[in-house]
Amino acid sequence: MGDHARSSATRTLLEAMCKELKTRVLRLAPQTANGPSLPSGDGQQDWKDVLETTVNSLREGQVVAVPTDTIYGLACLAQNSEAVKRVYDIKGRNGQKPLAICVGEIDDIYKYCKVTVPRPLLADLLPGPVTLVLEQSDALNAELNPFTPLVGVRIPDHAFIRRLSQMCGEPLALTSANVSSHSSTIAVHEFQDLWPKLAVVVDGGPIGDQTPECRLGSTVIDLSVSGRYQVIRPGCALSATVDILEQKYKLSQAPADH
């Protein structure tokens, strides 16, 4: 059996397993300059229907896979401790590794985090491929990352997940859609082994230009110390991010052990 035939057979088997376990694999109609296009009849679904299905699954405490502006992610409601535990179980993730949160608007950051930087700085970086690490506020689930007072927060520059966050009305816990220590994923078929463990898989098509750089994920910057920044993960947008922090806002890089 050739590689293509073997891959096709594997996909057929996984899709059958998902059907039996009631995993929904939903293909988004492509995004255009004027917003989501109409479904083409090629198995694509209207964004409104996909959003409603995904929101309902999240509110039921389920874990879903969604496209972002960098890589595919696993998401659940951050305020639901059982759902958060399920994310760790699905990924086989070390319980001492934190999950980021994803929100729909900059105003939401002020609700769930203690912000020590100017609001225009947030607006210059978000939405975008950046995770900002801040001190979490009392409004955020205390059982999310209980080993640290900090939390990474994202507003991806991707219309679907941003609208999903807005419709949920509360933060999503977000992490990469892969087994821990495995490569990040930029197409849904790359994490097919996880499909049966998910309520919904939203297929937004391939992300980026399929180069290795696409798999770097977001640039993670700690802004929890006033006037300083620390690079936690270089990611895919380091140079542009550091230029904004240093040139425009005159922040200095903190020592590695701050």
From TrEMBL:
One of its GO terms (biological process) is regulation of translational fidelity. It is an enzyme of class 2 (transferase). Its EC number is 2.7.7.87. It is a peripheral membrane protein. Residues 48-237 form the YrdC-like domain. GO terms for cellular component: mitochondrion; plasma membrane. GO terms for molecular function: double-stranded RNA binding; L-threonylcarbamoyladenylate synthase; tRNA binding. It is found in: Cell membrane; Cytoplasm; Mitochondrion. Its main location: membrane. InterPro entries: DHBP_synth_RibB-like_a/b_dom, Sua5-like_dom, TC-AMP_synthase_SUA5. Keywords: Cell membrane, Cytoplasm, Membrane, Mitochondrion, Transferase, Transit peptide. It catalyses: L-threonine + hydrogencarbonate + ATP = L-threonylcarbamoyladenylate + diphosphate + H2O. It comes from the Eukaryota. Belongs to the SUA5 family. Interacts with RSC1A1. Cytoplasmic and mitochondrial threonylcarbamoyl-AMP synthase required for the formation of a threonylcarbamoyl group on adenosine at position 37 (t(6)A37) in tRNAs that read codons beginning with adenine. Catalyzes the conversion of L-threonine, HCO(3)(-)/CO(2) and ATP to give threonylcarbamoyl-AMP (TC-AMP) as the acyladenylate intermediate, with the release of diphosphate. Participates in t(6)A37 formation in cytoplasmic and mitochondrial tRNAs. May regulate the activity of some transporters. PANTHER family: SUA5, THREONYLCARBAMOYL-AMP SYNTHASE. This is Threonylcarbamoyl-AMP synthase. It comes from Megalops atlanticus.
